[in-house]
Write a structure and sequence with these properties.
single chain, mainly beta, 4-stranded antiparallel β-sheet, globular
Length: 286
Amino acid sequence: MNNSFVITGDWLGTFEGHKGAIWAVDISHNGTRAATGAADFTSNFWDAESGNCLATCTNSHIVKSVSINRQMNLLLTGTSKSVISIFDVRQPQKSIEEYIGHNGSIKGARFLGNDNFFISIGEDKLLKMWDRRAQKELKQQSFDQPVNSFDLEDEMKVVTVTYGNNVALHDVTTFDLLRTHSLPCVVNSASLHLDQRYFVCGGEDMYVYKVSIETGRIMESYKKHFGPVHCIRYSPDGELYASGSEDGTIRLWQDSVGKTYGLWQRPDLTNIHNNCSPRDLDFVMG
């Protein structure tokens, strides 16, 4: 896994330890820890500053999802064979809890609030909430097409789900549908801005879109990638978002064009990215 610093664009280092493709990454709320899930059946817990691997957790199959709790002592993992596990990184030899409630691969799982609850989404088109204290499923929400991704930010209390050409926003507590909007292509990933007025998304047509939540209007669209966009995420402060593509690049986009922020305050970067506008900068991944 490669690590870059978004304020300067400097390459910080590479985390080495997996023996298979990495399918999932999560960063702790304070940026000091990272977690990865891989095809080698392991999920690793890292010191994000030094790159040292602090714990390795062995799962029953390919790890497709990984999440760090707020106290940074638990990992929530989901595998391609429908198993959801919770590991204590202080004693990572064996999972402390396991749940089986989806049919097929786990597409994502995230802790909620005080870690007594978590949500998961699977290949079976179901979004589920789980109670760890009772160790049972509490509720579920179904979708009429396969789910591509979901995103959840603790402070927002909104789950952003992509399925088919759609982006849906659901209340994290009740699973009530808040908004749903259709895009011109299959949407692989979406991320909600912290003020909850719009979201960004990307998919199979290689465009990055910014969409009004209230009206569904496409406010902005850019085609700078040369392959499908597989992942897009806002920074915690909402000042920029990053898109990752099949073309091997990660692009950083300003949320407000022309604002002095991070990479956009360095005059030495003005002309080094020939294919970039004042809005975006790109990084080629090896």
